[in-house]
C-alpha cells in the first residue's frame, strides 16, 4: 500500500480530482432526492394520512341554523341570526395535530348557532406548531366581531396559548380542549377555560396538571364524564385513545353547553337563556 502511495504522481492526483468533479453533481442530486423523499414522506404522513371528518362539514347546515364557508385554509361557521352589533363573539379554534380543520365543524356548529362566529383555520401539514399565528388573519379581517377568543384541541390548544401569549391585547379569552399551555399566560388577564374528558387516553395528564400554573389563577376547568380525546372532533377513533362511554353526539353537546355557560358567565351574548350543563363537572 505504501509503495503504491509513493508511486502516485501529479497526474494521478489530477485524475482523482477530475473524478471528484464529475461525481459532485451526482452527489448533490442524491442529497436533493433524499430531501425530496423525506418531504414527500412527511406530506403523506401529516397531510394525506391526517384524520378527516366523518361527514362533510357543509352537512351541518341542514341540522343547525348556520352557514359554512371555506376560509383561511379551513372553514368559517357563521350564525344565520347574527347577534346585535356590539355583542358579537368570535372563536378561532386551532385543529389538533394531524387533524383536518373540517373535523371540528360538526363539534362547533351548535356554538355558532348560538351566535358565535367560529373559524377553524388550516395550518401547514395539519400541524398548528407550523403556524401558531393562524388566528391573526381572521381576527384582522372578520368585521363586526366585538370579542375574540382563541382556542384549540390538543396541539392546537398549545398553539392558541402561544398566540395568546403575544397577543393578549387583541383577544378576550382562551379555550383549551384536551390541551395545556407550554407558555406562561398566568398574568395575561384572559378569561380561560380548559375542558378535558375522563376517558382521554392521549392527553398527558401529568403535564396537564403541572402546567395549570401557567394559566390565570381564575381559570375554569371542566371535566366531561365518559368523553375521550377524539370526541372533541368528528373524525373517528384515534390511535392511543381510550374507549369512550358516551356517544360523540353527547360529547359535543356537553362541550358546547360548557362553553356556552362559561361565555355567559363572562358576560357574552350567546343565547344564554335556558342553558343546561349536561354531565360535566366544573373543577376550580
UniProtKB/TrEMBL annotation:
Record has RNA-binding as a keyword: no
GO MF: hydrolase activity
Domain Alpha/beta hydrolase fold-5: 90-250
The keyword Cell wall biogenesis/degradation belongs to this UniProt entry's keyword annotation: no
Keywords noted in UniProt: Hydrolase, Membrane, Transmembrane, Transmembrane helix
Origin: domain of life: Archaea
A Pfam family matched in the record: Abhydrolase_5
Record-annotated membrane-spanning stretches: 23-46
Record-given protein name: Alpha/beta hydrolase
Amino acid at each position: 500500500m505504501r509503495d503504491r502511495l509513493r508511486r502516485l504522481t501529479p497526474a494521478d492526483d489530477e485524475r482523482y480530482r477530475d473524478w471528484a468533479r464529475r461525481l459532485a453533481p451526482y452527489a448533490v442530486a442524491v442529497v436533493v432526492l433524499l430531501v425530496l423523499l423525506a418531504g414527500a414522506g412527511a406530506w403523506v404522513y401529516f397531510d394525506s394520512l391526517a384524520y378527516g371528518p366523518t361527514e362533510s362539514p357543509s352537512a351541518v347546515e341542514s341540522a343547525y341554523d348556520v352557514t359554512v364557508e371555506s376560509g383561511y385554509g379551513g372553514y368559517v361557521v357563521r350564525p344565520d341570526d347574527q347577534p346585535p352589533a356590539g355583542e358579537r363573539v368570535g372563536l378561532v379554534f386551532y385543529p389538533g395535530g394531524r387533524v383536518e380543520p373540517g373535523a371540528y365543524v360538526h363539534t362547533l356548529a351548535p356554538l355558532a348557532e348560538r351566535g358565535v362566529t367560529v373559524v377553524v383555520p388550516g395550518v401547514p401539514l395539519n400541524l398548528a406548531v407550523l403556524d401558531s399565528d393562524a388566528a391573526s388573519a381572521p381576527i384582522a379581517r372578520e368585521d363586526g366581531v366585538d370579542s375574540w377568543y382563541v382556542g384549540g384541541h390538543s396541539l392546537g390548544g398549545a398553539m392558541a396559548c402561544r398566540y395568546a401569549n403575544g397577543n393578549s391585547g387583541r383577544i378576550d379569552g382562551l379555550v383549551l380542549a384536551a390541551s395545556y399551555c407550554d407558555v406562561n399566560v398566568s398574568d395575561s388577564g384572559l378569561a380561560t377555560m380548559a375542558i378535558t374528558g375522563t376517558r382521554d387516553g392521549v392527553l398527558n395528564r401529568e403535564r396537564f396538571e403541572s402546567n395549570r400554573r401557567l394559566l390565570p389563577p381564575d381559570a375554569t376547568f371542566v371535566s366531561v364524564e365518559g368523553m375521550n380525546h377524539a370526541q372533541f372532533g368528528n373524525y373517528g377513533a384515534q390511535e392511543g385513545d381510550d374507549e369512550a362511554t358516551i356517544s360523540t353526539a353527547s360529547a359535543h353537546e356537553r362541550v358546547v353547553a360548557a362553553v356556552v355557560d362559561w361565555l355567559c358567565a363572562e358576560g357574552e351574548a350567546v343565547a344564554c337563556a335556558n342553558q343546561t350543563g349536561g354531565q360535566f363537572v366544573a373543577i376550580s
